[in-house]
TrEMBL record, chains A, B:
It comes from the Bacteria. This is Uncharacterized N-acetyltransferase D1970_03400. It comes from Mesobacillus zeae. Transmembrane segments: none annotated. Keywords: Acyltransferase, Transferase. PROSITE patterns: GNAT. It is an enzyme of class 2 (transferase). It holds the Pfam family Acetyltransf_1. Its EC number is 2.3.1.-. Residues 8-150 form the N-acetyltransferase domain. InterPro entries: Acyl_CoA_acyltransferase (IPR016181), GNAT_dom (IPR000182), YlbP (IPR017274). GO terms for molecular function: acyltransferase activity, transferring groups other than amino-acyl groups.
Length: 157, 157
């Protein structure tokens, strides 16, 4: 089954759907505040992508382009994608939604960095991600996993 | 009851104790590799601090000084502490161990930044931490909480 990935619009409906996800925090609260204060408009683009089942949002992730000048993970240094808050609602897990989101992220052809919860390690490695060599001053306790497109390797410090 | 906070030494005993903690990842694996490869010596200092109950490590946190030139949280920009992996083993929770570690971190007199899991929000606010205003390009989905010593305020961008 094909899962259609959509860029999510920020509006009250989307933000209400976000409340169903476990990883809900300052980012979502900030979006609500920005909408309420008219700092952003209804239906502004968000850094989130999602998959709907009918009109219900069942999976989402956030994707953000980091500029090459801030790249401390890839060689040669280049723009890359930071992926976070990948999450599929419990009743919809193990149906390919998570994989569809990650494959969508890969389709941009840029390297990807994500921070894995350890319990999702096997999910990421099955999709071709590998652990970045841990560096305390860069990673500060995070568990970064990276995906290299062809021609890209790890940045050595 | 007074809890004594100690800087932890990296050795096989400490690293074996670390396995009891939920937040165990690339950082700990990297420390084991460095020890095995003789890149670091037995009993090197680590960024971890902990509290022992008898000879058992029951609580820990990691503390790392971020240099002022990288400070994007505090005004005026200054050296600050990044605190992560604060964790108390289940049988020892609600006995003041977590609070003792945080009070120890505060005793350096530097601002502190930590990334809260949402479910620990009340713990941090009770200790005087407040959410930093969320900025997507800086925080990338994290939920930073900060503690300001006297004379320090939030950095505005």
């Amino acid at each position: 089954m094909e899962h259609k990935v959509e860029k999510l619009k920020i509006n009250y409906k989307t933000l209400e759907e976000f409340k169903k996800f476990k990883e809900y925090g300052h980012q979502e609260l900030s979006m609500i505040e920005d909408l309420e204060a008219n700092i952003i408009e209804n239906d502004s683009n968000s850094p989130f992508y999602g998959i709907y089942f009918g009109d219900k949002l069942v999976a989402r992730m956030s994707l953000y382009t980091i500029q090459s000048k801030f790249d401390r993970y890839f060689a040669p240094p280049q723009d890359y994608l930071e992926l976070w808050k990948l999450e599929v609602l419990p009743d919809y897990q193990r149906k390919g939604y998570g994989k569809a989101l990650v494959e969508f992220a890969k389709s941009f052809g840029l390297p990807i960095k994500t921070n894995s919860r350890i319990r999702s390690f096997d999910f990421w490695t099955a999709l071709g991600f590998t652990p970045a060599t841990y560096e305390v001053e860069r990673d500060k306790g995070e568990n970064p996993l990276v995906w290299y497109p062809a021609g890209v390797t790890e940045q050595v410090h």
